[in-house]
Amino acid sequence: MPGLDDSRQFVPLKIAVLTVSDTRTPEDDKSGATLVERITAAGHTLAARGIVVDDIAAIRSRVETWIADPEIDVVITTGGTGFTGRDVTPEAVEPLFEKRMEAFSSLFLLVSFQKIGTSAIQTRATAGVARATYVFCLPGSPGACKDAWDNILVHQLDYRYRPCNFVEIMPRLDEHLRRPKAKGATV
Predict the structure, then answer these.
(1) In a designed cystine with 67, which of 49, 54, 120, 131 is the match (CB 3.0 to 4.6 A)?
(2) Average pLDDT, integer, range 39-65
């Protein structure tokens, strides 16, 4: 059965949160705040937080800066994953992926379907690995952020979670690059 192995020590990660929106400000960014709350409650460190407009260049630039930062292990974006003309987060971020995480999108769809039924089809949530950094692109609603964190990310970003998790493979994410960035738990 999957679950936490209390014999393993928790490994706090440094996580950056980026809200993609033309209208949100730090004062009314509920989705970003939801993620920050959950990240810190789980024992992780908020490494950075920002808001950028729905623009491919602006989104990509911020994410590129964060994945190049050796102090950031994970980037989570919220917003811009729908179908409107301004929804461009996947277009901005996916070209940065060295490895796409196809199963994240599928699992997020299953979780969302249980909550919002067929409306779950309206998301293009995506994830991948870029320069030894995990990147997750979530929809811009607080509910979607809660669902993704509470049902997927809280487990996979916890070294104690068994039978396996993202943290335990962090030291090997960049082995093809031969860079020392990924210094998470040892296997």
Answers:
(1) 131
(2) 98
